[in-house]
Amino acid sequence: MINIFMLPQYIFYTGVPGSRWSGIAQEIKSSGQYNCTDRAEHRIYKHGDFSGHCDAYYGTGMEFPANPAEGGLDKHNLNAPYTQWDLSSGSKLLMSHEWPYYFNEIQERYPLAWIQLVYRPDWASFLWWKKAGGFDITYPNYDWYETDYLMTKRIEEQNKLILDFGQKHSVQWIQHHKHSDIFIGTYKP
């Protein structure tokens, strides 16, 4: 049985490309407290020995927008990838590299939602993203990043927004149990 009283309906989950946030999300969602009905065959991307991607992503050029101006924060959009919407199915871990651009809007529209942050240094993230397939990754769509150079700049930009948000809200960072260069923090209002 899922304990719906411990987690909010929505957890906005973010990390830069290559931060290993997708694998960490799979670890998190394996607890049984999360709604996993967003998983679908067309969202699976595997590389090497890693499960890669299997959950829905929100963002520019993706199935579901993240930008509030495009309806990205509308409940209908947030619920769209899930085949079960009620809380009895667990909390929804809403994944987007772009949430850092909209932290203020998320807090205004969903004051009870948590925001979970995954931080990994810029260059390590970029190198892992390249090793995982880079622009050849079939899901999600990374066209918005355009080039390797722009990818490095957006990784820097998004990581800075993640760290600034964590600092502003005194988020406690926890080092990942397997990867010493990855830190996870959760903003809880």
Please give a handful of descriptors for the protein shown:
189 residues, 5-stranded mixed β-sheet
Give a written overview of the molecule.
- With 189 residues, this protein is of the alpha/beta class.
- Helix content is 28%, strand content 16%.
- The protein has one domain.
- It has a 5-stranded mixed sheet, with helices on both faces. Strands 2-3 form a two-stranded antiparallel sheet.
- Helix 4 (122-132) crosses helix 5.
Topology readout:
Elements: E1 10-14, H1 21-29, E2 45-47, E3 50-53, H2 75-79, E4 92-95, H3 103-109, E5 114-119, H4 122-132, H5 148-168, E6 173-175, E7 183-187
Parallel strand pairs: 1-4, 1-5
Antiparallel strand pairs: 2-3, 5-7, 6-7
Helix pairs in contact: 4-5
The beta-strand count equals 7
Query: Class by helix and strand content?
Result: alpha/beta
Helix-strand pattern, N to C? Answer: EHEEHEHEHHEE
Count of DSSP H/I helices? 5
Mean pLDDT equals 86
Radius of gyration: 15 Å
Hey, roughly how much beta strand do the residues contain? Answer: 15-25%
Q: Give helix % range.
A: 25-40%
What number of structural domains do the residues give?
1
* Spatial ordering of strands, largest sheet: 4-1-5-7-6
Write a short abstract of this structure.
By secondary structure, the protein is of the alpha/beta class.
